[in-house]
Write a structure and sequence with these properties.
This protein has 616 residues and is α+β, with helices and mostly antiparallel strands. 29% of the residues lie in helices and 24% in strands. The strands form six sheets. An eight-stranded mixed beta sheet has the order 10-16-15-14-11-12-13-17. A six-stranded mixed beta sheet has the order 6-4-1-7-8-9, with helices on both faces.
């Protein structure tokens, strides 16, 4: 455990089906912050067992297919105001709009902070299979060092008391969006005995900061009242009060492993007193390692800082080691249950897993190798009170902005046989005030050319500056910029209430599968698992050399007949997937008729009739 050389856990690998015969039935995930570019490739792991090692600039047909299914089978919850603005808007992001729920907390200084995935896979003739992932990692492209715990199990015949906290957590999530879970999802989960890791005697789940359904009692952090013989704390964020409280409840060795900039804020008396000689900072060589020449050559993702982001508390008592892993930092919001958090507790009597052994393994290494954590030097500390003050201002501003209601109103007009839309954004900001030198501006997320419009505080805003959009350019998402002295210091995405055209999603799909050759290739992929075509960031397949006339399309049509026959005899689900695509492309426009030709529709009618007969 915690050996970075041999125990690297791939996020995507933990979300893929157990084998090719299982299919994703439903998944619920939670994260504090969310990157729309990262979530674009997430369904590929669940639907097509592909690791999340691709850049969002290298999308394929499998991504297209997985994303079009994602909103109905994957639900993601995040903190409101913590969706990152993508570098480039991808129209496929529209498919996630109904699958993401933003959670608004009661206070600017509370956070929706859990990082949990509960995934259900099904297989004909077998009991449903559940996988549980509890991690410290957000659903972003951050390169920080995190920790994750994964377990799995099949549905049994009896309700298991150990799963009750998971059910309570999912019931809380359901209260925030009001969308029911699929039939059997919670009932079956209650009967799962999750696999206990080898060498451990206990595994408990700890949701924090929620009120269980039908109870007024809040679930608290299990570490709050614990007493330890020895304790090792690994946390990127720390504060004096929490560190002192843990020290008061520990009789033996205390070890603290954190980030240097956080340790610089801790009282010097505490570091040189109760934690003396046992305070370590994350290695600077690792933190800036990706910026070293040649390190990231060939990696499609840009080099970034790799800081500590893992949260682990390891305490020993009466010869047993208790590991607490998950989302909770060593801070007051997590310990006083102001935040919503989730942790897993493991118990073991193995000596190698005790707090002192783990601290030693992370702070010592063979000569010539980089140590993960190095001794913290009080004399090298620096102060950044200005940044703390700015962060506090930003936190309050973003909270106030996410409490505002944005309403979008569309007006259509005809221009040269095309329908264009003008957008008016309404916002009542009469109760909004901003600190001196701060301003806020916003614009529709997909619009890359419009100048953001300033939000006027203390007034009812009516922004009518955003005009001339086609249906593909419409979105409920707004990009909000917070500026200090005229410079953007924070951007995030918020959602407005707006009635969008009912044909929008089909038109987005048709704009991607926009010619016969792409259509045939996509059908071949769906029917027989052909190698998926690459897609560019805006959702358009990369250009491929055209063959003479329609020869290429004719060749594809011939091979498709064979694929249809194979699917009809062995995989009716693939044939049904093809039917959904064809129905999506049906329409009254000339563009559709160039793809769904009369000859093709005659061919398809045979298999469509077969499907109708088979489902009766």
């Amino acid at each position: 455990m915690l050996d970075a050389k041999v125990n690297r856990l791939d996020y995507g690998e933990q979300l893929i089906p157990p084998d090719s015969s299982y299919e994703l039935d439903f998944a619920v995930g939670t994260t504090y912050s969310l990157d729309l570019e990262a979530i674009m490739v997430l369904p590929v792991a669940m639907f097509y067992s592909r690791l999340l090692d691709c850049s969002p600039d290298a999308l394929h047909f499998d991504v297209l297919d997985a994303i079009t299914q994602s909103a109905s089978k994957i639900r993601v919850f995040c903190q409101k105001g913590k969706i990152k603005v993508p570098k480039k808007y991808n129209r496929l992001m529209a498919y996630w709009e109904k699958g993401i729920t933003q959670v608004l907390m009661d206070s600017a200084y509370s956070s929706f902070h859990p990082k949990v995935w509960i995934v259900r896979f099904t297989k004909n003739g077998y009991a449903p299979f559940y996988r549980l992932l509890i991690t410290s990692r957000n659903l972003t492209y951050a390169h920080d060092w995190d920790i994750a715990f994964a377990t799995e199990g099949e549905v049994g015949g009896e309700v298991i008391d150990k799963t009750r906290p998971l059910i309570q957590f999912l019931q809380y999530l359901n209260q925030t969006d009001g969308k029911p879970y699929p039939k059997g999802f919670l009932e079956d989960l209650a009967k799962v005995t999750f696999n206990l890791p080898e060498g451990h005697r206990l595994m408990d789940f700890h949701p924090i900061g929620i009120h269980p359904h039908g109870s007024d009692k809040i679930l608290t952090n299990p570490l709050k009242e614990k007493r330890w013989d020895d304790l090792t704390i690994i946390s990127p964020f720390v504060d004096n009060v929490t560190l002192q409280a843990l020290a008061d409840k520990t009789t033996g060795k205390l070890s603290l492993l954190s980030r240097k900039d956080e340790l610089d804020t801790i009282d010097a008396g505490l570091i040189s007193g109760r934690y003396k000689n046992r305070v370590f900072q994350f290695s600077e060589a690792i933190r800036s390692g990706e910026n070293q020449e040649g390190i990231c050559d060939g990696n499609p993702l840009e080099a970034r800082l790799q800081d500590l982001h893992a949260k682990v508390f390891i305490g020993s008592k009466n010869g047993y080691s208790h590991w607490f892993m998950g989302s909770a930092n060593c801070t007051q919001p997590a310990f006083l249950s102001r935040n919503i958090e989730f942790m897993v507790e493991l118990k073991s009597d193995q000596t190698k897993l005790n707090p002192s052994r783990i601290a030693k393994s992370l702070t010592e290494s063979p000569e010539g190798e980089i140590t993960l954590f190095e001794p913290y030097q009080l004399e090298s500390r620096s102060s950044d009170d200005g940044k703390k003050s700015l962060d506090n201002h930003l936190r309050k501003i973003i909270f106030d902005l996410t409490n505002l209601e944005f309403l979008g109103e569309l007006f259509s007009r005809s221009v040269a046989e095309h329908t264009l839309y003008d957008l008016i954004i309404h916002c009542d900001a009469t109760c909004l005030s901003l600190p001196s030198l701060f301003t806020v501006r916003l614009k529709p997320l997909p619009d890359t050319t419009a100048r953001p419009k300033g939000l006027l505080t203390g007034k009812i805003n009516q922004m009518a500056d955003f005009k001339g959009y086609n249906e593909l350019q419409l979105s409920p998402y707004l990009e909000v910029d917070v500026c200090y002295q005229g410079t953007v210091i924070k951007s995030f995405i918020t959602e407005m209430q707006i009635d969008l055209p009912g044909t929008r999603m089909d038109k987005i799909f048709r704009s991607i599968i926009d010619d016969k050759e792409k259509f045939f290739k996509y059908l071949a992929f769906l029917l027989g698992g052909k190698t998926p075509e690459p897609l560019t960031p805006d959702g358009q397949p990369l250009a491929t050399p055209k063959q003479n006339g329609d020869n290429s399309a004719n060749l594809f049509a011939t091979s498709l007949y064979e694929e249809f026959l194979m699917a009809a005899s062995r995989r009716h689900d693939r044939l049904m997937s093809a039917k959904k695509v064809i129905e999506r492309l049906r329409g009254n426009t000339s563009e559709d008729s160039s793809i769904l030709t009369e000859d093709f529709l005659k061919l398809w009618a045979v298999f469509d009739a077969f499907l109708d007969k088979d489902t009766k």
